Amino acid sequence: MSGFGQDIRYALRGLRNNPGFTVMVLLILALAVGASAAVFSVVDAIVLRALPFDEHDRLVAVGERRSGMPGPGIGSIAPQNFLDWRQQQDVFDALAGFAMGSFTFQEPGREPEEIRVMRVSSEFFDVLRAPPMLGRGFLPENEIDGRHRVAVISYGFWQSRFGGAPDVLGKSMPLEGASYEIAGVARPEFSYPVAAEIPTQIWVPLVVPADERIRTPARFSSYLQGIARLKAGVSLDRAAAQMNQIAIALETEHPEWNKDRRIGVRPLYDHIVGDRTRSWMLMLMGAVALVLLIACANIANLMLARASTRTQEMSVRAAIGANRWRIARQFLIDGSILSLAGTAAGVLLASWGVQILRGAMPESMPRVASIALDLRVLGVAAAAAVITALVFGIVPAVQFSRVNVAGRLKDGGRGASAGRVQQRVRGGLVVLEIALAVVLLVGAGLFIASFVRLMHVDPGFDPRRVLTARVYVRDEPGGVDRGSPALVDIVNRVRQLPGVEQAAAMSGNMPLFGAISSASMALPGRPAERRTVLVSYVTADYHRAMRIPLRRGRYIQDSDGTGSAPVALINEAMAAAFFPGEDPLRRTVQDSSPGQRSERAIVGVVADVRRGLETTINGQVSEGRIFPEIYIPLPQGRRSGGELVIRTAGEPLAVLPDVRAVAYSVLPDVPLRDVRTLEEVMSRATAQRRLSMLLLSAFGVLGLVIAALGVYALMAYLAAQRTHEIGVRMALGATRGQVITMFLRHSATLALIGLALGTAGAWTLSSTAGAFLFQIEPTDWRVFTATLVVLGLCAVTASAIPARRAARVDPLVALRYE
Question: How many Cβ atoms from other residues are within 10 Å of residue 47's Cβ?
Fold first, then answer.
C-alpha cells in the first residue's frame, strides 16, 4: 500500500508537470462522458425502464385498428364499442376505458383555473393494481349520470390544495361547475399517464352519455383509450384472437359502424413508448456511443504517445528494481486518475445537459418527467470510468512495461522513437477516430438537410406574432347555447385592445393542433355523391389573422350572423374535388351535420392549409396532408368552444393579461386553456427533428474536433520524435517542402484509410436513419461528399501545423537534439 500511494503521488506530479496533455485529456473525456450520461439518462427514463406497476408485463393496451393496417399501432375507441367489448370479453381480469382532458377548478372568490383530469371507468385502478392510499376508487354505479360526482385526487393535489389533511375524504371541491366529493387519495408514486410532463391531478368516473350508448349512422365519435390486465394463463395472442372475434361479430351486427374495424391488443409498455420512439432513442444512444469511442481512441493514442517519451524513465525504474507489474501499475494509475477526474467533470456537464434535453423533448414524448441524473445513470457513468481507465492504462502498460534496460540506458533516449508496433497502434487509432467521425458527420448532415427541407414546407399560414388560447364553455341545463355567442363577444372586445391587429375564433380544425372535425357534404341534386370534408367554424378576420390568402370571392364577414343567409368558404382542395373546372362561387353545398342548415352558398375560395408539416403513411414520410375543408361562420353554428386567434403588432404574450381580463369579464367561470403562440406550436411540431439535428450536429462536431486533435497529436509527436532525423535530412540537402510532404504523405494515408472505412460504415448504417428523414435519401451523395471534404480538410490542416513547425527546425539544433 505504501508503494501504491507513492505511485498515486508520482502520477499526480507527472500530470501536473504536463498541463497541456492533462487538460486536453480531461476536456475530451468530460465532453464525451457528459454527452453520454445525458443521453443515457433520457434513453433510460423513456425506453429502458419498466412500467411502475405490479406485474407490468401482464398489462396491455386495447384499441381499434383498421383491418390490414400495417404496424402494431392501435387507435382510440368509440364508447359504444367499448361498452360491448367490456361486456363480451373473458380474457382480461378487467378492461378499463379512459379519456384525458381538463376541467375547470374555481374556488370561491378566485379566478377559474385549468386542472388536468382523467375520466376513467370503474375498473381503472384495479387494472393497474394501484388502489388509492386513502379511501377507495370507483364503483360501477359511479358510471351513472347523477351518481358520478366523486373524485380521486393525486397525492400532490392533496398536499397543495388540502395541506395533506387526513380528513379530506368526503369533502367537496368545485369542479367543472359542480361539487365533487373526494372519495380517495392516490399513492405518492402513482401517476397515469406514467411520468407525464403535466401530471394528472384528478380522476373522475367516466360517464358515457345516453346518445353515445347507441349507434347513430350520422354521428361517430372515437375518443376513449383502453387498458387491460391479462388473466392468468392467457397469452397475448389468445387475447388478441378473442377480441378480434368480438370485432367481427360487431361488424356483422353493425356494418354501417364497424366495417373493417378490428381490435388491437399490444403490451402497454410498447404502446406507451412506441416503436418509433424506441428506434429514435436507440439511434441517439448509438451516436453518442460513437463519440465515446472516438474519445477513448484519441485518449489512448495520447497515452501511448506520452508513454513512449517515458521509456528512459521506465528503464531507470527497472534498473533500480521495479518489476514489470510495478511499471504496468504506474500506467494503470495514470489512466485511472484521468478517467475518474474526466468522468466527474462529465457528470457535472451531464447534470446541465439533462435539463436542456428534458426541456427540448417533443410534447408527445412519454415519461418525460422521469428524466433525471439518478443513481442508475451515475452507476453507468462509474462503470464507464472503470472501463475507460482500464483501456487508457492497459494499452501503454502492455506496450512499455517490458523494458530493454541495457538498450535504453545505452542510447540515453536520444532520438528514441517508437517501434513499428507502437506506430501501427497509434496509426490504427487515428484511422478509427476518422472512420467513426465520418459516420457521425454523415448522420448529422442527413438530419440537417432533412430539417432544412421540413422548414421550407409552406403550412399555408403565417405563424408569426399570433397568440392562441382555447375557450371551452360548458353546456347549460335546458340546452342554452353559450359557446358561440360568448366566443363572438370575446373576439369583438379583444379587437379593441391596443396592440391587436386582428382577432378571431376558430372551432374545429385549428392547423397543427391535432383535433379533426368533419362532416359529409354533397351537391344539391346529387345526394348520393357525398364526400367527407373538414368542417371549421370561424369568425370574421380568421383568415386575415392567419394570413391565409383569398383566391376568389370574399372572406367571411361580421354580417354573416345568426339571422343572415347561410354561407361558407371552401379551400382550393374542396373546390377541385366538388367543382372541377367550374367556378364554385354562388354554388351551394348540402350540410348533413346535426342541427345545421341543409344548404350553404359558397362566397369565397381560400388557399389550402396543411394539417401538419409532415405525415407518415405506410412508413413513408411526406409533406403534411391537405384535405377538402369548408369554413362556416361561427354565429351560424352551435359550438361549445374554440381557439382564439389573435395577431398582434408586437410580442404576442404582451397582450395576454388584457385578453385574460376580457375573457374573464365575458365568462367568469371559464379559464383560458393552452395559451401559446403559433410559433411555439410550430416549434413543438418540429421538436423531435430539431432535437435530432442539434444532437447529431453536436456529436458530429465533437467527433470532428476530437479526430482532428488525434491527427494533430500524432503528427506533433512524430515531429518531436523525428527531430534528429529531420536535422540529418536537412543537413544532407532536404528542403522544407520535402520535409512537409513527408509528414503530409503519412497523415494523408491514414486519413484516406479512415475516410474509406467510415464511408463504407456510414453507407451501411444510413438505412437505419431512413425512417427519420424528410424528403432526403439516406445515401444522399451531397451529404457524403460534403462530409469527406470537411473531414479531409480538417485532417490536412491538423497535420500541416506540426509539419510546418518541423520544417522550420534549424539543422544544427536538430543534430544536437536530445
Answer: 19
**Alpha carbons 207 and 139: distance in angstroms, whole number:** 12
CA dist., res. 419 & res. 437, Å (int): 27
Backbone φ/ψ region at 55: left (φ over 0), alpha (ψ -120 to 50), beta: left
Q: Are 540 and 504 in contact (CB under 8 A)?
A: yes
- Tell me the pLDDT tens digit for each residue of 608-655: 999 888 887 666 777 888 999 999 999 988 888 899 999 999 999 999
Taking 80 as the threshold, does the pLDDT of residue 98 lie above it? yes
Say if residue 569's pLDDT is above 90: yes
Distance CA 780, CA 769 (A): 12
pLDDT at 724 over 70: no
Q: Is the pLDDT of residue 377 over 70?
A: yes
Reduced to 3 states (helix: H, G, I; strand: E, B; else coil), residue 620 is strand
Distance CA 103, CA 818 (A): 81
Q: Are 77 and 97 in contact (CB under 8 A)?
A: yes
Residue 808, pLDDT score: 73
Coil vs helix vs strand at 5: helix
CA distance 63 to 793: 54
Name the pairing type of β-strands 261-267 and 641-648.
unpaired
* pLDDT tens column, 503-534: 999 998 898 876 778 787 878 767 666 788 89
pLDDT at 202 over 60: yes
Residue 737 amino acid letter: G
Which residue, among 635, 644, 654, has the nearest Cα to 503 in the 3D structure?
644
Alpha carbon distance 79, 326 (integer Å): 75
Q: Please, are residues 558 and 548 in contact by the beta-carbon 8 Å criterion?
A: no
Helices and strands (H and E) in the chain: how many: 24, 23
> Is the distance from CB of 502 to CB of 644 less than 8 angstroms?
no
- Which residues neighbour 362 within 8 Å (Cβ) at sequence distance 6 or greater? 684, 687, 688, 691
| Residue 803 burial by Cβ neighbours in a 10 Å radius (0-12, 13-18, 19+) | buried
Residue whose C-alpha is closest to residue 332's, from 355, 303, 305:
303
Evaluate whether 177 touches 104 at the Cβ level (below 8 Å): yes
The identity of residue 767, as a single letter, is S
* CB count in 10 Å sphere of residue 456: 8
CA 399 to chain centre: 45
Task: Write down the residue that cell numbers 368542417 correspond to.
Answer: 535
Matching residue, cell 364499442:
81
Q: Are the CB atoms for 619 and 70 separated by under 8 Å?
A: yes
In angstroms, rounded to a whole number, what is the distance separating the alpha carbons of residues 278 and 571? 38
Give the Cβ contact number of residue 352 at 10 Å.
12
3-state secondary structure of 644: strand
Whether residue 172 contacts residue 155, with contact meaning beta carbons closer than 8 Å, is answered with no
Give the CA radius of gyration of the chain: 34
Lowest mean per-residue pLDDT among 98-102, 236-240, 524-528, 666-670: 524-528
The pLDDT score that the predictor gives to residue 392 is: 66
What does the pLDDT average to over 187-200? Answer: 90
Which secondary-structure segment (H or E) carries 25?
helix 19-43
**pLDDT confidence of residue 60:** 96
Q: Is pLDDT above 60 for 430?
A: yes
Element (H, E) at 614: strand 614-617
Is the pLDDT score of 404 beyond 60? no
> Most distant CA pair in the chain: distance in Å?
109
Eight-class DSSP state of 44:
I
Q: Residue 648: name the closest of 607, 683, 685, 677 by CA.
A: 677
Q: What is the DSSP letter of 58?
A: G
